[in-house]
Amino acid sequence: MKITFVQPYYFNIWEALGLAYIGAYAKKKFPGKLRMSFYQGYFDSDSTIIEDGKTSDIVAFSCTSPVFRPAVKLTNAIKAINPEVRTVFGGFHPTAVPNDCLEEEAVDQVIVGEGEEGFLKILAGDTSPIIYGDKFAEFEDIFPDRDLIKNDRTVDLCQELIGKRITSLQSVRVCPFRCAFCAERKVTGVFDPKTNPLRVRDPKHLLEEIRWLARKYSLDYFKFADATWNTSTEKVIAFCEEKIRQKVDLAWEANVHAAFANKEMLKAMKAAGCIQINVGCESGSQKILNDIRKGVVVEKIKKVFQWCREIGIERRSYFLLGMPNETVEDIRLTEKLVDEIQPDIFGITILCPYPGCDFYEPSTMKSYDWTFADEYSNPYWNTKHFTNAELKKWQKYLTDKFSSSLSWHNRLIKEGSDH
Ligand code: B12
Ligand code: SF4
User: Fold this and answer.
1) CA within 20 to 30 Å of 199's CA: 45, 142, 173, 307, which one?
2) Residue 418's pLDDT is what?
3) Which atom of ligand 1 is the closest one to the Cα of 67?
4) Which residues, in sequence order, are bridge partners of residue 406?
5) DSSP string computed for 43-81
6) Residue 390 carries which DSSP code?
């Protein structure tokens, strides 16, 4: 059976880790012969993708909301040449709005949730339009197929853009939080210690993959793609101790939730070569943090940044404007917090009501084209207190004020608006 996997074009990419897991699992479990190829819109032209797809049995697309339309365009082109090709859509967007995806004539099947088991069902002959992917139980035993997703290309791209050879890994599935603005829980489900616990990889297994990746791609650095990396002190310490014991001398970074962070954990991370933590601070207003179920208090955010400064770990902060109850006073509190914590990298976005988050309202938003709308610059959001233009003004004010430490994406927007 011939399968073409596609990550459609987007200007901001990383390796298609989800497809790498699906490919590895299919190779391991499917009894028949598989010929799998992978294309990534960032590197491969539409014509290359269509050329390969038109002779495949299945063409499978990985979609966040902004890449859904480009994926449909490719699907239509492939089906126009060969209507026999089966087209499968998976990832965050199809998971959040499966029926909307199926309204596109050229979309045959949608997988909701994690893709490994669901895709295997398709290979085994299931032709249902919507397939529910069961929890991927073997996550802790398998390595994603990096050759399939041509991981060397994104590592080379990192080297070209930032001078470091970087790739990312997943160490845990399920996020213990359920923030209102985030679609994370759609794919792996809402955390529940009994029915949907965290699935954490054994540090030995994780380090085996890191060592292998470091050799294979001559890495300088690695990142954890996990939504929340520091899910417990035990997990963090076990990984850091094992990394030191195995003498894996590679620098890294991770997304850290301030509520779960403590000084002991951060010290262990520093000792194990962690260079940077990325923290979703979102707001300096406790009222707003409570509203969005961030699960953290402002004072704790301040402490985490203070500890990291003392310990010598760089700090990246993500902030978010446009929560429904946010007022000028709340934004001023955010500004005050940034002044106080002095992040090394500062990012500020505007809420984007993607399908899958609490703010997505199908009756009014179903027709939105997300292709050019992201949380950095979207025309789709205003609140009772601010118009879209006013939110953008505040974003500009803050990016101007903290311009010396802007994130890459915010710098792009600032440069665009300054010219
Ligand atoms: C790391 C990350 C990034 C990285 C890399 C993303 C990438 N791989 O291209 C960077 C920083 C580049 C990034 C960029 C963006 N991201 Co991002 N990102 C993440 C994050 C934290 C982890 C993604 C990841 O690697 N997961 C690990 C892999 C193993 O899981 P997975 O990709 O979900 O794949 C599984 C399933 O989704 C499914 N699946 C996926 N594809 C397919 C395909 C088929 C055929 C099937 C059957 C199943 C299937 O099966 C996979 C295995 O179980 C997620 C949140 C999260 N915790 O998942 C947000 C998330 C995916 N990102 C999001 C967004 C919005 C973006 C951006 C638009 C942000 C921006 N403004 O630039 C871009 C879009 C990038 C793109 N190419 O589409 C949203 C998506 C929401 C939505 N409704 O679409 C998420 C959910 C976060 C959020 N805000 O809620 N992101
Ligand atoms: S914003 Fe971060 S902590 Fe909150 S649910 Fe999403 S991934 Fe989890």
Assistant:
1) 307
2) 67
3) 78
4) 346
5) TS-HHHHHHHHTT-SEEEEE--GGGHHHHHHHHHHHHHH
6) H
Are residues 239 and 383 both part of a single domain?
Answer: yes
**Closest-CA residue to 190 (of 64, 293, 68, 301):** 293
Among 87, 98, 189, 209, CA closest to 136 = 189
Distance CA 390, CA 34 (A): 53
Asked if residue 375 has its Cβ within 6 Å of ligand 1, the reply is: yes
pLDDT for position 419: 60
What b/e sequence results for 236-275 when a residue is b if at least 16 CB atoms lie within 10 Å of its CB, and e otherwise?
bbbbbebbeeeebebebbbbbbbbbbeeebbbbbbebbbe
Query: Considering its fold, how many domains does the chain have in total?
Result: 2
175 lines ligand 2 (CB under 6 A): yes
Q: Residue 411: what pLDDT? A: 78
What whole-number percentage of the chain has pLDDT above 90? 91
- Best residue among 7, 9, 14, 21 to mutate for probing ligand 1's pocket (most ligand atoms within 8 Å of CB) is 14
Confidence tier at 405 by pLDDT (50, 70, 90) = confident
Asked if residue 217 and residue 101 are part of one domain, the reply reads no
Instruction: Report the separation in Å between the CA atom of 228 and the middle of ligand 2, taken as the mean of its atom positions.
Output: 7
Residue 158 lies in a domain: no
For the full predicted model, state whether its pTM sits above 0.90.
Answer: yes
* CB 399 within 8 Å of CB 413: yes
- pLDDT, residue 416, reads 72
Strands of 337-390 (E only): list them: 345-350
Supply the CATH number for residue 34's domain.
Answer: 3.40.50.280
Assess whether the C-beta atom of 255 lies below 6 angstroms from ligand 2: no
| Atom 7, ligand 2: residue with shortest CA distance | 227
* 151 belongs to a structural domain: no
- What is the rounded distance in angstroms from the CA atom of residue 313 to the CA atom of residue 341? 13
Query: Residue 246 belongs to what domain range?
Result: 164-418
Q: Is 357 touching ligand 2 by the criterion CB < 6 Å?
A: no
